[in-house]
Amino acid sequence: MELVSDLCLLLVILHAPAVLALSTHVAVIYPQDPVLHMGSNLTASCWIHSDLGVHASSLFWTLNGQPLPGSLYRVLSPTNLSVTLAGLNASRQTSGDNLVCHNHKGHILAGSCLYVGMPPEKPVNLTCWSRNTKDLTCSWAPGGRGETHISTQYALKYKLRWYGKEKECEDYTHVQPYSCSITRDLHLFTPYEIWVEASNQLGRATSDVITLDILDVVTTDPPSGVIVGRVGQLEDQLSVRWEAPPALKDFLFQAKYQIRYRLEDSQDWKVMDDVGNQTSCRLAGLRPGTVYFVQVRCNPVGIYGSRKAGIWSEWSHPTAASTPHSERLMTGSCDSKSTLRRELKQFFNWVRKLPYGCSNMSMKLYDQWRVLMQDSHKARNQVGSPRG
């Protein structure tokens, strides 16, 4: 007898929301807005007010606007029609699928949202960087296939490694959905522990914890003031000059630079890795009379003595310049395999073997050699030209 009383009490508690709701509504659906695992079964009931004068057998159900077959229905009482859905698929949208109860004329009596999905998996690929040591931005990827099919929240957590209090990042970006920036109360020379927590109504998961010092993950703004120009009348060269990133001028670090360039009508970039820490360089071996686009980027190595390499900045905005036209083309010379071209190739092969790549020494030697060869070429043209 005591068991029966407990069971009745349980039924009263389960049905209480419907009973209370019916005092102010013509109908309610129970359960209301359930959250279910993919593949689950669901039995929902549509309770109608007795004063409505409608029998439950005249009602029907729709899911996302599509009528459900009557074979899924069961009349539990004159005021209660149930429907059973087996092996539920994932929700089509995070706002849920609409399960609706209608009267015989098609009017909506009550509705419920079904949230069918999966608990989140462990977030992965947590990566962080600091722009000019002024912030700390981290990005990550959802675990597994990355789709839970229901609303899932991600929280970037962090704390100072030994004595810090756990905090949560507040500046989540909308451009990149899984990213957040910490912009205040940052400490240098102190390691941080950082991780991501994912949660929804079906469960939660936590990423691996990474430990880093902000000085070890610094990236800069791109180099500024990039200028690309001709080198006199040397038709196969362009000079490139730039300034160090302004935000790091007062920092103790050793910058590394890279240059990349491409032809105007090409998307294939050629990268120069051996620029070093100087803020100027020559591009040699270019096509005469051709427009080139040039970009520069920076890597702040060893900020305040950090032993780790920095992170490359974005590339600077493209700067365009053209090489001079070849005098051989202007004078109508067809000697495309001339001695001059062969000697140029030999010289470039020699320059590429030098460890200092874009050094001033190699450029000065080249300038002297190149002018000498051009003067020699002009002299040969003058000697061999027909006289009037």
Automatic annotation (TrEMBL):
GO cellular component terms, semicolon-separated: CRLF-CLCF1 complex; external side of plasma membrane; receptor complex
SMART domains per UniProt: FN3
Top-level taxon: Eukaryota
Residues covered by the Fibronectin type-III domain: 122-217, 222-323
Sorted UniProt keywords: Disulfide bond, Glycoprotein, Immunoglobulin domain, Phosphoprotein, Receptor, Repeat, Secreted, Signal
Keyword Glycoprotein applies: yes
Pfam families, A to Z: EpoR_lig-bind, fn3, Lep_receptor_Ig
Classification of source organism: Eukaryota, Metazoa, Chordata, Craniata, Vertebrata
Signal peptide: 1-21
Keyword Protein biosynthesis: no
Residue ranges of coiled coil: none
Annotated family: Belongs to the type I cytokine receptor family. Type 3 subfamily.
GO-annotated molecular function: cytokine binding; cytokine receptor activity
GO biological process terms held by the UniProt record: negative regulation of neuron apoptotic process
InterPro entries: FN3_dom, FN3_sf, Growth/epo_recpt_lig-bind, Ig-like_dom_sf, Ig-like_fold, IgC2-like_lig-bd, Type-I_Cytokine_Rcpt
Subcellular location: Secreted
Name of the featured protein: Cytokine receptor-like factor 1
